[in-house]
Design a protein that fits this description.
Blueprint (H helix, E strand, L loop, with lengths): L23 E6 L1 H8 L2 H9 L2 E4 L2 H9 L12 H19 L5 E7 L2 H14 L3 E6 L9 H14 L3 E5 L4 H8 L9 E4 L1 H8 L7 H5 L3 H8 L1 H21 L1
Parallel strand pairs: 1-2, 1-6, 3-4, 3-5, 5-6
Length: 245
């Protein structure tokens, strides 16, 4: 049974620094992904058996306190927070090791247009990093040939940091399913929306909205037709699930 009460969730942004080096799968959880995982066994397994789970939603933080969950995160850790922490850490390392070889960060997912914008911005913000990208086919399910091509591209890049961005739950399920086939040595984060934020194709909520736990409302107001079901019905469903727990 997939229950918030039983999950091991990172407690604060400061704890990101304590994550061990090496091959590590880092996923995020919010109200929407929790609701989805309740009815998706593979997704629930991917979230449960990953190496680290961060609370990407103020609802998760508050719910953990309310139901007296095993984990008691002190603050929300957005996917963007994870992205900035890992990228800044690698950039600092890249500065020190630049004369030896450039450190590589790979972005797998999204459209080629978004990936091109990511490469352009990364060159400005993280100049000491080599950026490699791969845009998978845009389809609900990948064929065996598609999966093989993606895995080969990742292994050939041998990145020092890997970001997977195909929206939840697809990105988490794909990474978990093919984890043993990825011959890499780095942290891997599943952060779909961050690709668009960093590329500048989607505007993130202003700081005030973020600080007050209202980033979801900002996204709803910006894209009501696409987001109403996720936030209006989804938030009510999450509250019902927490009541049952």
């Amino acid at each position: 049974m997939f229950r918030l009460k039983d999950l091991t969730i990172l407690g604060s942004k400061a704890e990101l620094a304590s994550l061990p080096e090496g091959k590590l799968l880092i996923n995020t959880i919010n109200a929407h992904s929790f609701n989805t995982a309740k009815n998706d066994k593979l997704f629930a397994e991917a979230l449960t058996k990953g190496d680290a789970l961060i609370p990407d939603g103020v609802s998760i933080v508050k719910a953990c306190r309310w139901i007296k969950a095993k984990s008691q995160p002190k603050e929300r850790i957005a996917g963007w927070d994870l992205f900035e922490f890992e990228m800044n850490k690698l950039e600092e390392l890249g500065i020190r090791k630049f004369r030896e070889r450039p450190l590589t960060v790979m972005f797998m997912g999204s459209s080629q247009k978004v990936l091109d914008l990511i490469v352009k911005r990364a060159a400005e913000v993280y100049p000491h990093l080599k950026v490699v990208t791969y845009s998978p086919p845009y389809k609900p399910e990948f064929s065996d040939e598609d999966n093989k091509a993606i895995i080969e591209a990742i292994n050939a890049a041998d990145p020092d940091l890997l970001w997977i961005g195909m929206t939840a739950p697809k990105q988490e399920k794909w990474t978990y399913t093919h984890w043993k086939e990825l011959n890499i040595h780095c942290h891997v984060g599943t952060i779909g929306a961050v690709f668009d934020f960093f590329a500048g194709t989607v505007e993130r909520a202003p700081i005030w909205w973020q600080r007050h736990g209202l980033e979801w409302l900002y996204r709803l107001l910006k894209e009501p037709k696409r987001m109403w079901r996720r936030y209006i019905i989804g938030n009510a469903l999450f509250l019902w699930n927490m009541t049952k727990e």
